[in-house]
Structure formats: structure tokens, C-alpha cells
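Consider the following assembly input.
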Amino acid sequence: MERPGRLLLLSELRVRNTAYDVSLSRSLLTWKRRISSPVYHPFRPRFCVPSFPRRPDSGVCHSVSVSEIISVREEEEENSSRQRDDGSWKKIKEREGKDCRQAFTVLYVERCRQHRWRCAEVTFTCPEEALYQRWVSSIREQLASITSRPKHLLVYINPYGGKRQGKHIYEQKVAPLFAQAGVSTHVIVTEYANYARDHLRTEAELKKFDGVVCVGGDGMFSEIIHGLIWRTQIDGSVDPNCPDQTLLPSSLHIGIIPAGSTDCICFATVGTNDPVTSALHIIVGDSQPMDVCSVHHNNTFLRYSVSLLGYGFYGDVLTDSERKRWMGPARYDLSGVKMFLTHHYYEGTVSYLPARGIVGTPRDAAKCRSGCVVCQHNGQLLSKRAENYTMDEDSESDGEWRTIRGKFLAINAASMSCACPRSPKGLSPAAHLADGTTDLILVRKCSRFDFLRHLLRHTSKDDQFDLTFVEVHRVRRFRFTPRYCQSDSDLELDLRENGKRQIFSQICRDHPACGCAPAYSSWNCDGEILTHTAIDVRVHCQLIKLFARGIEEPTVFEDLTNPCAI
Ligand SMILES: CCCCCCCCCCCCC/C=C/[C@@H](O)[C@H](COP(=O)(O)O)NC(=O)CCCCCCCCCCCCCCC
Ligand SMILES: Nc1ncnc2c1ncn2[C@@H]1O[C@H](COP(=O)(O)OP(=O)(O)O)[C@@H](O)[C@H]1O
Ligand SMILES: [Ca+2]
């Protein structure tokens, strides 16, 4: 609960014809009904809930954090009416026959069920013009002093993402809120794939903007980070192709308006896939750092990843689903069932560098939440290590690499939980957004029944890692080599281990139904297919920042007091 601090203003104003004591400090706007009501008891503070403001007529005391005020609107003519969003007309000034009274409306963030935010408003009427002016200008001054709020945004809309509603969602739900908050925008509707990435890399005048907004899904977000990270390295004379290079963080924040098929990056950083909630997080200037993995093949840069790098099952689902793009988000379910029934496994070698000295494990019960202390601690630790770069990196590359060979149904690296509506706890429920690590999940060859048990646990409280054929490691780097890319000496070893078996007849024996199981899958990299299977992955701690705050823990007050949440 925020402490109110020194009061800047304290006046008696009216809300819907009822007298309220209204106060403004640097951190809080509070309005408290003057006449005590039978339900009010001064020693029961539960009626005053600063972080979860209630509607004006639902209680006696309301508070809203100044950081969550969206804007102040000056109401115009006395006795005039204004049309609400829902089409109804509301009166702005009460007819009381008193002297000239002035009204202003404060728009603020109201929390609803399941992490959704809405824009609520309350209209205050002042007894005199001078007081009205003081109130409006004082609130505006407080808002102007919040330097983290974006004023100019560069917006990219993918009109073909998800259900092809990106443009409509932006125009109907987001643009009006930006306008109300006084945020100016330059909107670009993409014309083809990689349009936004290339525009950011070369053309965009980034100095003019405080942030970039992505209207689309995870694939569109991936375009944005590729453009932005690349541009930042080139502007800072850093070679993005070198796998050992420490990358420069971009100064621009990225906002995500979900309009894609999975939208897991939005879901895992805000707690819901809702365009209005995301727009409000952007307006209030929230900040959430996020790890980025760089993916290389033979020292050549391939891509960045922030959510899922998946070989085997998720790679095959993506490859198959691309042919069904016309179906929209349902394509993943259909391809998921198909790939589940196909039940391919792939052989290869995974090497990884376990994360040393950091807090947290993939089996923790605690989750990454707003203001996560694990991310803060590990972020500081890793940036200190980066300062003493040479010694540490050398020991990283020399020792401690571990190697696992086997037959895998899936190899997944989750740099964040990958929570999404299909799986609200995600692929790795305890993964952190900004701790500099990724959770490497190895699902070994098992029966269809066992694999189904593993998949189903993504949707229940049961632990999807608590199975003999699943292992999970928290890592800083990893490499994968598919079996048939292995060096000659590795292959010789394989042949000795397997006797004199023929490599290809081995595959066909294990798949008598088709007789031609593929030796390779593809990597699903945040929803894009990689062109190579042998990859080298490194996590870059907190390389980008989002207009988000991580998932907020629900407070005891949320369901009890917020009428919107009931
Ligand atoms: C039986 C139910 C099993 C449910 C298992 C659900 C696990 C879902 C984990 C999803 C992790 C998603 C990670 C994010 C990936 C995105 O970057 C990426 C791109 O997103 P975009 O389209 O918005 O651009 N999305 C994806 O790659 C989509 C992955 C979706 C996988 C769906 C899998 C469904 C599996 C269904 C199996 C059903 C077996 C039924 C047997 C009778
Ligand atoms: N104008 C466009 N036309 C076609 N494809 C586009 C366009 N703009 C972006 N894309 C591509 O569309 C793909 C999917 O975008 P995304 O917004 O993630 O939707 P979805 O979640 O449905 O996959 C991405 O690979 C992106 O590069
Ligand atoms: Ca992480």
C-alpha cells in the first residue's frame, strides 16, 4: 500500500452530487465521502483500498495511485451532456442553481478479474473556477513529472496475424486510449513479412520515439526485436554475428498489443491477452526487462528468441501448421493432434552450461511475478560477472559443459514460462523473464500414452517434469547437434555402441508403420522455423525492455472489494 506523503491539495468537491474530501499527494489521489454512512467504521480500513479503487458509488473512500492515472479531462459547458462509450448520455454538471461550478474527470486504471485492466473515470465538480484550475493543473503537473511515460510511439500493425483483426483492434480499442492519454503515434501497417524488421533496421527514425508498439502475435514481436536489437548493435559498433559478443541493450521499450495466435509473450508478461490492458500498461510507462537468446550456427547468427526454442514436437507442430495458416489460431491444435499421433523422435546430442551461482531452479514452487527478486538478484550478479568478463567467460567455455545424447520427442528451451491461454502455467512454470537463464527441457522417447500424460500436465496442477522420461536444466548456454551432423569420431562411437547396426535401417525398424521416419526435425524459434538444426544458443540477460510489469499477485482485496472483479 502506497503512503500518501505530503498533501498537495485538499478540498471539498462533489462526485455525483455528494460531498467528498478530495486530496492529492505526489503518489495518491483520494476521495472520501463526507457524510458518514452506517456501513462506515473508522477502525475498519478495509473500506479504504488504495491500490484497488472502487467505483464512486460503491463505498466511502477511494484511492488511486498517481502513477495509474491516465489523464484528466476538463468538462465543458454547464449542464451539457457527453456520450459515453456505451452509447448512453451522462450529465456532467449537476443543476443546483449555485454559482458557476466546474467539473473535471480523472481517468484511471481499474483492475478487473484475471489481471485485466480497464479505464475507469470519476468526475469531480468544484465550487469555483480558481479551485477547478488548481486541481486540473496540479494533477497534470504530477502526471508530467512521471518521466517513464511514453509520449511518442512507433506502432507496427500486422494485419494478417491471428484472426486478422490487428488493424481493427488497434483502431477500436487502443488508438482512442492513446489519444485520451495524449500519446502521439506514428502507425505503420506492414505490407509483407519482415517489413517491420527491415524498417526498424534501416529506416525508422528511432530518436523521435520513446517506444515501439507491436500489434500482432509472437512472430510479429520477433520481427520487432530483430529489427531493434540489430539496429542497436550496428549503431553501437557491435558485431551481432559473433556468438561471444556482449550485446548492447536497446533504449526503447516495446509494447505488445496482442493480435496473434498464441501471444505467449504478452500473456507471460502481463497475465492476460487483452488489448486494452496492454494499452494501459504502455500508457503508464511500465517497464519489464526480458532475456533474449541468440541462436548461432557455425558462428553465424541465425535468430533471437525470447520464449520457446523447440525441436521435435513443437518444431513439427509449427512446420505442419504453417500450411494451415488460413485456419487461424486453431491450426496449432489440429497440427498438435496430428504430430502427437505421428509420434516422431529424433536423435542427437545436447550440451549445456548449467547456470552457476544464480538463485532459482526450474522445479521451484515460486513463480516469476511483478518486481521479481530472483530476476533482480540474478540480473545484478550477471552484470557484475560481465564486468569481470575475461576470467569468467574463459572458465565458462572451458569447464562444466555437460553432454546428453539420446532419442528425444522434444527438446525445448523456455526462456520464460511460455504461459498462454492453452497452458496458463506454461512450458516451464518457474522460468523467469529476466534472470539470464533458459530452462532446457528434454523429453526422451516414450510411449504415446506417457507423452500424452506429459502434455496434459501443462493444463493441470500436476508437475510436467515429474516423469522418468523428462528432465529439466536451468542453463546459460546450450548446443544441439542432430545425430547425422555429428563429427566422424562421434559417429564411430555410436557405431561401436550400437554394434554394427545400419543407421538408416535402425530408424525404419522403429517406425514400422511408415518405414521412413525423418532424421531431422526443425527448430521452432518463437513461432518461426529455423533454417538449421545444429545450433548454439546463448542467453543475454535483460537485453530488452517491455511496457509491462510482469504478472501481479492478486491481493486479498482484489476479489472482495473491486466491483469489476465480482
Ligand atoms: C492435450 C493438451 C495438451 C496441451 C499442451 C499445451 C502446451 C502448450 C504450450 C505452448 C507453448 C507456446 C510457446 C509459444 C510459442 C509461440 O512463440 C509460437 C508462435 O506464436 P504466434 O502464432 O502467436 O506467433 N506458437 C507456437 O509455436 C504454437 C505452439 C502451440 C502448440 C500447441 C500444442 C497443442 C498440443 C495438442 C496435443 C493434443 C494431443 C491430443 C491427443 C488426443
Ligand atoms: N503484412 C504482412 N503480410 C504477411 N505476413 C506478415 C505481414 N506482417 C507480418 N507478417 C508475418 O506474419 C507472421 C505471423 O505473425 P503474427 O503476428 O505472429 O501472427 P500469428 O500469431 O497468427 O502467427 C510473422 O512471421 C510475421 O513476420
Ligand atoms: Ca529467463
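The CA atoms of residues 30 and 63 lie 4 Å apart. Ask yourself how this observation constrains the way the partners meet.
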